[in-house]
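Need a sequence for this fold. Nothing fancy.
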């Protein structure tokens, strides 16, 4: 039995070693880019990539571990089967590794399922290789395959030769349990977020991050998640017609009402987890759930008709920071090569002299957000790894008051002007709070309300403290939700689920005790804020200036294969699968449905092209 376990360990380690060798080969092949990096990043790419190497080795080990159950009496068949299995896997992986070497030059990202499109047009595939050194690459492929195959064959031959007879009563349960336990290395450990690109992304140098990625893992992930697809499932018009309809919604406008101080002011964006308008009394929601926010709404600028673009944090994050609309069946944040092309607020602020930072008490790897953050020119990213173990008193990480206190301490020492973003977590399921319960009850709705009451108190304390700081007079604070929530069930319509608060505060705000009643979206924050500060906003094609004099007021939101379309005259909610209008109110014309469908088609087409 021990020899069998030793073999599986050696076989798995052999693959991990090979993956590290492939990484060295990648760095050597792209030596010019490698030499542009500090040598410390070479080692860090290997160290961070190790987790993904182990993950894919876990996938490969699944078949040998399962087959090992039936080797109690005879195992020659096992050695022969594993030799064939290893040869096939070695061939496929070696092919991917060699193809990736040259394709990375052309594409700028590691090989994924996109390459399958070229199989339909082999002539174009050959043409796309351009001046690639085909013959040397073929020789390298042959040599590498032979090397890998000989190593694996040697491991199989020597190890299986030492097997001894045992009973099925031992092999079946042991290796069945072992096979099941491989899910742990496959998912990257026992943490909340399963293995994704964010688990290995670690640097603001994109090449160092790409070097850390395991090629076969990346390719398989893109196949399983269909991230390589170029087919738009939401086609209702000619592409030009859809684009023209959408273009009419975004009118170039050089005149915008000025509501904040001119110049290089500080900006703090607090993204409040699941903050639905249904819990804000100032927005006709439940009373006494968020009393601090409601008091602040009386002195700040409250946006009463703000709608989330999507229904998940990953979609809300991109909508807020990049002004980019949510996709109904995908999430762009899951695909680093796409998010790399997005504009973002931190990029603009960083480029123009602001110190940029991001704060979150949980795992930034969750929903692959870390890879997105690392691309956005944040000078500093703080997550759960930067807090003491004693502060890890939530399922998700450090509670909101802990993170807000850390932000406050850092801002006191921060170089100005600064652009800081903080993402709360305590109002996420399971709605844990580290303080005495205020809103009694153990059902999900009462727990949800109590969690928001806690976050509200934490933000209220933060604002109260901020008002005493010397930087307050030159600071704009924006409080906005990442998305809404079905709870509380006081209003079960889709628009109510996506209706969220946004509040502007701070000494840099010049218009106080004001309400903005124009319909707007999370995606509109980017252009609105940049125009207020006279910073370039032209790259935010999906963002509308809320204060623009010629603005067309509307909001679009996406949920699981559905869309919502909000206009001053009413709204409609559409099921994309059946094509039915599931909710409707007001006097919207049939043309308005066309605008909603055109927006979905055009925005999804943009997503596919990135």
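Here you go.
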């Amino acid at each position: 039995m021990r020899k069998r376990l030793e073999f599986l360990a050696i076989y798995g380690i052999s693959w991990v070693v090979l993956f590290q060798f492939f990484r060295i080969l990648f760095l050597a092949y792209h030596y010019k880019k490698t030499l542009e990096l500090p040598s410390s990043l070479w080692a860090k790419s290997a160290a961070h990539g190790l987790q993904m190497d182990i993950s894919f080795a876990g996938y490969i080990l699944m078949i040998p571990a399962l087959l090992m159950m039936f080797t109690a009496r005879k195992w020659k068949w096992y050695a022969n089967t594993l030799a064939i299995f290893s040869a096939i896997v070695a061939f496929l992986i070696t092919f991917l590794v060699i193809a990736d070497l040259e394709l990375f030059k052309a594409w700028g990202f590691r090989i994924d399922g996109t390459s399958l499109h070229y199989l339909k047009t082999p002539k174009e595939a050959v043409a796309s290789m351009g001046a690639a050194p085909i013959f040397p690459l073929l020789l390298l492929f042959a040599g590498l395959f032979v090397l890998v195959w000989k190593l694996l064959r040697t491991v199989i031959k020597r190890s299986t030769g030492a097997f001894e007879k045992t009973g099925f009563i031992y092999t079946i349960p042991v290796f069945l349990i072992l096979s099941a336990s491989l899910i742990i290395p496959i998912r990257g450990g026992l943490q909340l977020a399963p293995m994704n690109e964010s688990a290995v992304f670690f640097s603001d140098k994109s090449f160092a991050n790409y070097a850390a990625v395991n090629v076969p893992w990346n390719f398989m992930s893109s196949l399983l998640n269909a991230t390589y697809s170029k087919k738009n499932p939401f086609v209702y018009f000619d592409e030009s017609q859809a684009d023209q309809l959408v273009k009419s919604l975004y009118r170039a406008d050089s005149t915008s009402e000025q509501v904040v101080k001119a110049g290089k002011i500080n900006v703090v964006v607090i993204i409040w987890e699941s903050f639905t308008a249904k819990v804000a009394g100032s927005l006709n929601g439940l009373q006494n759930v968020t009393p601090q926010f409601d008091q602040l709404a009386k002195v700040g600028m409250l946006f009463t008709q703000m709608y989330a673009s999507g229904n998940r944090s990953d979609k809300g994050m991109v909508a807020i920071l990049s002004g980019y609309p949510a996709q109904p069946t995908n999430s762009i944040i899951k695909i680093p090569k796409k998010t790399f092309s997005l504009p973002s607020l931190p990029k603009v602020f960083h480029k123009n002299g602001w110190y940029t930072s991001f704060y979150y008490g949980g795992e930034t790897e969750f929903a692959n957000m870390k890879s997105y953050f690392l691309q956005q020119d944040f000078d500093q990213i703080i997550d759960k790894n930067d807090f003491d173990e004693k502060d890890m008193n939530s399922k998700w990480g450090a509670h909101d008051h802990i993170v807000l206190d850390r932000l406050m301490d850092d801002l006191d020492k921060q170089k100005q002007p600064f652009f800081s973003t903080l993402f709360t977590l305590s109002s996420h399921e399971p709605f844990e709070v580290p303080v005495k319960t205020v809103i009694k009850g153990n059902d999900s709705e009462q727990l949800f309300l109590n969690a928001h009451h806690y976050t509200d108190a934490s933000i209220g304390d933060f604002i109260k403290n901020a008002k005493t700081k010397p930087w307050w007079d030159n600071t704009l604070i924006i409080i906005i939700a990442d998305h809404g929530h079905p709870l509380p069930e006081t209003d079960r319509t889709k628009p109510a689920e996506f209706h969220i608060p946004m509040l502007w505060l701070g000494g840099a705000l010049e218009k106080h005790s004001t309400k903005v009643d124009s319909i707007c979206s999370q995606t509109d924050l980017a252009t609105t804020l940049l125009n207020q500060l006279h910073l370039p906003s032209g790259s935010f094609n999906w963002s509308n200036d809320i204060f623009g004099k010629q603005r067309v007021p509307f909001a679009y939101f996406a949920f699981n294969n559905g869309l919502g379309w909000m206009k001053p005259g009413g709204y409609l909610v559409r099921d994309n699968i059946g094509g039915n209008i599931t909710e409707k109110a007001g006097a919207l014309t049939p043309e308005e449905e066309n605008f909603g469908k055109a927006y979905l088609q055009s925005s999804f087409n943009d997503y596919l092209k990135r």
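For context: The chain has a mean pLDDT of 93.
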